[in-house]
Design a protein that fits this description.
This protein has 495 residues and is α/β, with parallel strands linked by helices. The chain has 2 domains: 2-246 and 454-476, Aldehyde Dehydrogenase, Chain A, domain 1 (3-Layer(aba) Sandwich), CATH 3.40.605; 250-435, Aldehyde Dehydrogenase, Chain A, domain 2, CATH 3.40.309.10. The chain is built from 17 helices and 23 strands. Strand 6 and strand 7 form a beta hairpin. The chain starts with a strand and ends in a 16-residue tail after the last strand. The structure holds nicotinamide-adenine-dinucleotide (NAD).
């Protein structure tokens, strides 16, 4: 069994505490990852402190060249990265490649950093006075990322933070540490000076050391809502800039005029892709009218029963295992709870043969019909392969239902009616909206973020908001008085 160590200034640093990393498809421990403490975090900060001033002073176009080489290397080694993701997370290889491609988009966007940092300029803002504002890096910034996108979510953060002139410390999920270390090696090969990208593995101890370290100026967090809230609060108390993205419960509204074949097959992918372990997974289908619901549930059930499930590292599958045994059991517990609460369990993923036959953490796809808003399976984020159908009578009822939910990450509407689609996009209290697009994850040149309990902070992740998040503005006013002019003291406010 190999060890996964911290990465500090290009050195692999071992730790005293370690935990096993599992392959969810076999249930076997395959690696051991180091868990960092305050001393590990301090060592990463010292490396960052030393490297950042020289990096900050490089022209942005030179910093972008490193990102350009990094992008080429990510593409060269994409298969290897996806293998690590599939092995430790359990998702299927094609899905891992999808997340990596979306991650690489962010590196491409960071290659344009010279343009993005250009700032604003006013000639003759006052008599003989020119004013400009520019963006300057914060110094040392940190990211804390979840298990479910081992490649993509870290790539939302550090390429832009580093391209803006910062040093970055990443605390990836301890359940999926290896893809991050592979990408650290590629940044090194791309020529990034050492100390600008450091990885401290670990759990709460490492995270709290990062939040409490005065030299860490900003924190980007992606994970569950309770942890997002706690980090946002403690980071703010420590005077840091914080963006903390949390959990989700994403609804798809299906109107009676929708193309139901298309809605059903795209919903199946959006609900069960990555075994539902996506913050943008659709976990509720809101059907307007009983005829719509009857027709849709029939189609969904047929597709859910025939999903190809198996080890993520095998090709041609739809869905892999869940990330760990405790999470699989928690999801199975929700299926039990939903049935006991009176929802109609149309397809029961617990009966899939792999649940019995395999030592991996498998569950088949589950489909509930006639779910109601007070049920736990509706209120809570399950984060597994469970799709709930809620029946409503009107479109307005569907909008009100979604707006009353605690989460507001993503949503979508299936319809052929432009007026209804426009009303939905305007009225819905959710940060990312799809119109016949079930997973409306914005491309890298737009920013990503939910509303309500799905995001704490002002700025969203990646895209233009990332440039704002990882820099601070400075406004400079300059005047070059004529040498002969006699300046007199001015006591009134300059106007
Ligand atoms: P998690 O909150 O358990 O862990 C996220 C990170 O925080 C990990 O690095 C973990 O080590 C660390 N952590 C865990 N507990 C902590 C604590 N008490 N104090 C400090 N740090 C702690 O989340 P997860 O299970 O890894 O990921 C799944 C969750 O992430 C889901 O809720 C999902 O919706 C959410 N998520 C949200 C988005 C988004 O963009 N909104 C994207 C991906 C995942």
């Amino acid at each position: 069994m190999t060890d996964v160590n911290h990465w500090i200034a290009g050195d692999r640093v071992a730790g005293e505490r370690r935990i096993d990393v599992f392959n969810p498809a076999s249930g076997e421990a395959i690696r051991r990852v180091a868990l960092g403490d305050a001393a590990t975090v301090e060592r990463a900060i010292a490396a960052a402190r030393e490297a950042q001033p020289t990096w900050r002073d490089l022209p942005p176009a030179k910093r972008a060249q490193v990102m350009f080489r990094f992008k080429m290397l990510l593409e060269r080694d994409a298969d290897e990265i996806c293998q690590l993701v599939a092995e430790e997370h359990g998702k299927v290889l094609e899905d891992a490649m999808g997340e990596l491609k979306r991650g690489i988009e962010n590196v491409e966007y960071a290659c344009g950093v010279a343009e993005l940092l250009k700032g604003e300029y006013s000639h003759n803002a006052g008599p003989g006075i020119d004013t400009w504002s520019n963006h300057q890096p914060l110094g040392i910034v940190a990211g804390i990322t979840p298990f479910n996108f081992p490649a993509m979510v870290p790539l939302w953060m550090y390429p832009m933070a580093i391209a803006c002139g910062n040093a970055f410390i990443l605390k990836p999920s301890e359940q999926v540490p290896s893809a991050t270390i592979k990408m650290a090696e590629l940044l090194d090969e791309a020529g990034l000076p050492r100390g600008l990208f450091n990885v401290v593995h670990g759990d709460r101890e490492a995270v709290e050391a990062l939040i409490d370290a005065p030299d860490v100026r900003a924190l980007s967090f992606v994970g569950s809502t309770p942890v997002a809230k706690a980090i946002y609060r403690r980071g703010a108390e420590n005077g840091k800039r914080v963006q903390a993205l949390g959990g989700a419960k994403n609804h798809a509204v299906v109107l009676p005029d929708a193309d139901l074949d298309n809605a059903a097959s795209t919903l199946i992918g959006a609900a069960f892709g990555s075994a539902g372990e996506r913050c943008m997974a659709i976990s509720v289908a809101v059907c307007v009218g009983h005829d719509t619901a009857d027709a849709l549930v029939g189609k969904l059930a047929d597709e859910a029963r025939t999903l190809k499930i198996g080890p993520g590292t095998e090709r041609g599958l739809d869905m892999g295992a869940l990330v760990n045994a405790a999470h699989r059991d928690k999801v199975a517990g929700y299926i039990e709870q939903g049935a006991a609460a009176g929802a109609e369990l149309v397809v029961d993923g617990r009966t899939h043969p792999l649940v019995e036959e395999s030592k991996g953490y498998f569950l088949g796809a589950s489909l509930f019909d006639r779910v109601t808003p007070e049920m736990g399976i509706y209120r809570d984020e399950i984060f597994g392969p469970v799709l709930c159908v809620v029946r409503v009578d009107t479109f307005e009822e569907a909008i009100a239902l979604i707006n009353a939910h605690q989460y507001g990450n993503g949503t979508c509407v299936f319809t052929r009616d432009g007026e209804a689609a426009r009303r939905f996009a305007d009225a819905i209290e959710v940060g990312m909206v799809g119109i016949n697009v079930p997973l409306p994850v914005p491309v890298a040149f737009h920013s990503f973020g939910g509303w309500k309990e799905s995001l704490f902070g002002d700025l969203h992740a990646y895209g233009p908001d990332a440039v704002r998040f990882y820099t601070r503005r400075k406004a400079v006013s300059q005047r070059w008085p004529e040498r002969s002019a006699q300046e007199r003291a001015q006591f009134s406010f300059p106007s």
